[in-house]
Write a structure and sequence with these properties.
Blueprint lengths: L1 H18 L2 H9 L11 E2 L10 E8 L2 E6 L7 E3 L7 E2 L1 H8 L7 E7 L4 E2 L8 E10 L2 E11 L6 H4 L22 H19 L6 E2 L30 E2 L6 E2 L1 E2 L5 E2 L4 E3 L4 E3 L3
Parallel strand pairs: 2-6, 5-7, 6-9
Antiparallel strand pairs: 1-10, 2-3, 3-4, 8-9, 11-12, 13-14, 15-16
Helix pairs in contact: 2-5
């Protein structure tokens, strides 16, 4: 059932938040360094996320759009009519994200394998951004993230190393830790976008290059998941002896995940979990 599928994504999401916290990503790039001007990612004097932030999950699976909040939020919104259809523009992604809290929040939109989104599989697997909102007469901004399920559309582009890559060095795909290439791919991409959202939530935080296509905390380390990584090789990952699945993070209830590396300004290198 769609609701069961969305619940599974949500439980993975909760475990991901506990492993890959917003505050730790922000602190990593705020760590003291010898010469900030020599760093790959420059600070552009904008606001970062801090304090209490609600993270809301907006899930579109089959005939369901379900916002499942963390306990911090305490509300749900259900739309079982695919109200915006199965082919979405970026503007419609923002519309969906706007259904969550509009201040002190990150609203995460996940689209199912049968939903097309502008730019998906062409030049992106997900995005993050922000939107202004008027709440009780005051102007606020909320951050949002969108990630698509690439299982049927482009697993070689958005779910590597759990699928054969569509270009570059070819190697055998690894076994996904939750036995679901699409959802494990969502977890990987969501991890990277959470890091980018924490450190560059409003487009003027830590990044390198043009603000319209910034290199951020995780995108500065593409394809790096463990020590020893190089193009076509994700690194020396942990391997589950029972399933043969590759992972680098332990979650709640025995779950295992693959999360991306984050750029560490104190070493000017990509920092991995293993």
């Amino acid at each position: 059932m769609a609701s069961d599928h969305c619940f599974i994504v949500f439980m993975k999401f909760l475990a991901l938040i506990s492993l890959f916290t917003i505050s730790s990503a922000s602190r990593l790039l705020n760590s003291p360094v010898d010469d900030p001007q020599d760093q790959l990612l420059r600070y552009h004097n904008g606001a970062l996320l801090h304090g209490t932030i609600a993270v809301n999950l907006i899930c579109r699976l089959q005939d369901l759009i379900l916002i499942i909040p963390l306990p911090l939020l305490g509300k749900q919104l259900l739309d079982d009519t695919y109200s915006l259809g199965k082919s979405l523009s970026q503007k419609q992604i923002v519309q969906l994200a706007s259904r969550g809290d509009q201040k002190n929040a990150i609203n995460v939109v996940l689209t199912a394998a049968d939903v097309a989104v502008d730019g998906f599989c062409v030049n992106r697997c997900g995005t993050h951004g922000s939107k202004s909102a008027l709440v009780k007469g005051k102007n606020y901004k909320f951050a949002y993230i969108w990630v698509g399920n690439s299982e049927t559309q482009c697993p070689g582009y958005c779910a590597w190393p759990f699928h054969q890559p569509i270009y570059g060095p070819q190697s055998a795909p690894l076994i996904a830790p939750n036995n679901d290439v699409g959802l494990d791919g969502i977890v990987m991409n969501l991890g990277g976008l959470l890091a980018g959202t924490a450190t560059n939530p409003f487009g003027n935080g830590f990044y390198q290059g043009p603000s319209t296509a910034p290199l951020e905390a995780a995108s500065a380390c593409p394809g790096v998941y463990a020590k020893g990584a190089y193009p076509g090789y994700a690194g020396a990952l942990l391997v589950d002896p029972a399933s043969g699945a590759s992972y680098n993070a332990h979650g709640a209830n025995g779950r295992k995940y693959l999360l991306p590396a984050i750029y560490d300004p104190s070493t000017s290198k990509c920092s991995t979990l293993v």
